[in-house]
Every structure is written in structure tokens, then in C-alpha cells.
Design a protein that fits this description.
By secondary structure, this protein is α+β, with helices and mostly antiparallel strands. It has one domain: Alpha-Beta Complex (paralog of FGE (formylglycine-generating enzyme)). Helix content is about 20%, strand content about 15%. The chain is built from 7 helices and 13 strands. A 6-stranded mixed beta sheet has the order 1-2-3-4-13-7. The chain has a 4-stranded mixed beta sheet with strand order 10-9-8-12. The protein has a 3-stranded mixed beta sheet with strand order 6-5-11, with no helix packed on it. It starts with 5 loop residues before the first strand and ends in a 10-residue tail after the last strand.
């Protein structure tokens, strides 16, 4: 990213000297003409106290983190709160998915500070957002009526570049657009499309029945540092692959599962890597080594000047 685009929050919303809203209009008007995966012009960016970067997404009233929440971001939350979030993590082993004592700190594979935090459940993700909100309100980095949270399922779809989806609930919408991926409309993914289950994933810890994408390699057997692959047209990285991302919504009226979006390094099927796919096979208490998160910043109405 162009470092000159990293404006303050006041600048990015037109409250300072830089007319950020106008810049966003110019950027997103051009971006909507681009395919799903393209190199966009430098967007208006807000960088928060943890170094997380956020951009507005047209059609929503929130600013999306350009990356999955990173290990170093989550570590700051744990250090401040003592909420270690380490119990009952389900990890990948040669014998399948099992509890092995893995944690977000040590999920069974190397993790650097810039890799996406994994092995967290929906409650952990929500707790991180609540802590970050309180921290930044206390520091006057955001206003009292602004906050961080998980994206809604509908917001995530818009940020992924999906058109209007048929259905009422996330479960009804899941997989309804079978030929739409982050890289385009064909299967398999071209080289360098994202962090999926490529052939390098099939190591000694890979389950015997674990699939990989034939002839695909991305260089990362498990997670990859955020921003390792090209962003989508809105400047968002890893909206497909790396780790599944928790969303706010229940997937259906039975209130059994929360929506997970995007797929992960473990996924090798066209069905799982569709942008319209919702994972609804685990309850929100589940901690798995391919589950992570992405934050959005909810702006105060007076500061929300994002084009439709």
C-alpha cells in the first residue's frame, strides 16, 4: 500500500484538512468497474492504535479491516485482559481433527506476529472487538458512539464483491453462486490466487483423508502472513483462504451456528471456496486452527460519508 494513503481518521472522513470522503468517492467509483480480483488504486485508509488498517466499503456503513486480525493484535488483547482463549482447540493431525493441546499461540504450525490469529471461537472474536472499542474510546482514538465489531454476513458479502444474493438467512444464501470465486469464475484457482490447501499442505500432519487442490501450490502449508496475496477490488486481503472469518449472524433460525466466511488453508473444494459459501458445521464455541476473524469499524452517522 502507498504509505501516503494512511490518513488519520479525521482526515479520512473530511473532518480535517484532507477531503477523505471525496477521495473515497473517486476511488470506489473507479473500483466498481474492476473485476473481483484486481490491483486497486490506493484507498483512503485509517490506521488504528494497533496498526490495523481500515477502508470504507461501498454499500455498507462500516470500515473493513484490510487484513484478518493478526497474532500480534490478539496478543495485545490477551496481555491487557488476561483472557487467554486457549482451551479445547481442535487441531489438524494425521489421524484427523483432534484436541491436542494446541492454542492460538501454538496451533501446531509456525505462527509469526503478522500471521492471522487462529484457533479462536466467536466469543473470543467478540471479546477482542469489545476490548478494542473500550481501549480506543478511552484513548479518544474513536468517538463514544463508534465501535469495533465483527461484520454482519451481509456486510461480508458486499466486501467480497458479491451481487445481491437470493435467500433470507445466511444458510439459505450459502453456495447459491456456484461459479463465483475471489479470483474469477473458473476452477481450479490460478497460481498465486490465495492460501488454500495446495499440494504443499500434504505433510506428515495432514489427515490421510485430507484433500488438496491438484497441481496448485501457494507456498504456505498452513497460514500465511496477512497481505501475502493480491487484494480484492476494495483493497481487502484474504477474503478467500487463509482462515475462516467469524461474522455476527446466526446462520439460521435454530440459532445453532454462527456464519463463517471465506474458506481457509485447509479447504480444497470448489464448494468451500465459493465466495457465497457459509460454513455452518460448528457451534460458535468451537475453536479450530483454521478459524479466525476480521474486524469492522462502525462509524458515527455524522462521519459516514461512503457512496452507495
Amino acid at each position: 500500500m502507498n504509505p501516503t494513503a494512511h490518513l488519520s481518521l479525521h482526515q479520512a472522513t473530511g473532518r480535517g484538512l484532507v477531503p477523505g470522503a471525496l477521495a473515497a468517492v473517486i476511488f470506489f467509483g473507479a473500483a466498481c468497474m474492476l473485476p473481483l480480483r484486481a490491483t486497486p488504486p490506493p484507498p483512503v485508509v485509517y490506521e488504528n492504535s494497533l496498526g490495523m488498517r481500515f477502508v470504507p466499503v461501498p454499500g455498507t456503513s462500516v470500515w473493513f479491516s484490510v487484513w484478518d486480525t493478526r497474532v500480534r493484535d490478539f496478543a495485545a488483547f490477551v496481555a491487557a485482559t488476561g483472557d487467554d482463549a486457549t482451551k479445547h482447540v481442535v487441531a489438524i493431525t494425521a489421524l484427523g481433527w483432534k484436541e491436542t493441546g494446541a492454542t492460538w499461540k501454538s496451533p501446531g504450525f509456525p505462527q509469526g506476529p503478522l500471521n492471522p490469529v487462529c484457533s479462536i471461537n466467536w466469543n473470543d472474536a467478540r471479546a477482542f472487538c469489545a476490548w478494542l472499542t473500550a481501549k480506543e474510546q478511552r484513548e479518544h482514538a474513536i468517538a463514544a458512539d463508534e465501535s469495533y465489531r465483527l461484520p454482519t454476513d451481509a456486510e461480508w458479502s458486499l466486501a467480497a464483491g458479491l451481487p445481491l444474493e437470493a435467500g433470507t438467512t445466511p444458510a439459505e444464501k450459502s453456495g447459491r453462486m456456484p461459479d463465483l470465486y475471489s479470483w474469477g469464475t473458473t476452477w481450479p484457482p490460478p497460481s498465486g490466487s490465495g492460501n488454500y490447501a495446495g499440494e504443499e499442505a500434504h505433510d506428515h500432519d495432514w489427515p490421510s483423508d485430507g484433500a488438496v487442490i491438484p497441481h496448485y501450490a501457494d507456498g504456505y502449508p498452513r497460514t500465511s502472513p496477512v497481505g501475502s496475496f493480491p487484494p480484492n477490488r476494495f483493497g481487502l486481503y484474504d477474503m478467500s483462504g487463509n482462515v475462516w472469518q467469524w461474522c455476527e449472524d446466526w446462520t439460521g433460525p435454530d440459532h445453532r451456528h454462527r456464519s463463517l466466511r471465506g474458506g481457509s488453508f485447509y479447504n480444497a473444494s470448489a464448494a468451500d471456496l465459493r465466495l457465497s459459501r457459509r460454513a455452518d458445521f460448528d457451534p460458535p464455541e468451537t475453536r479450530a486452527v483454521n478459524f479466525g476473524m476480521r474486524c469492522v469499524l462502525v462509524r458515527a452517522p455524522r462521519n459516514t460519508q461512503i457512496p452507495p
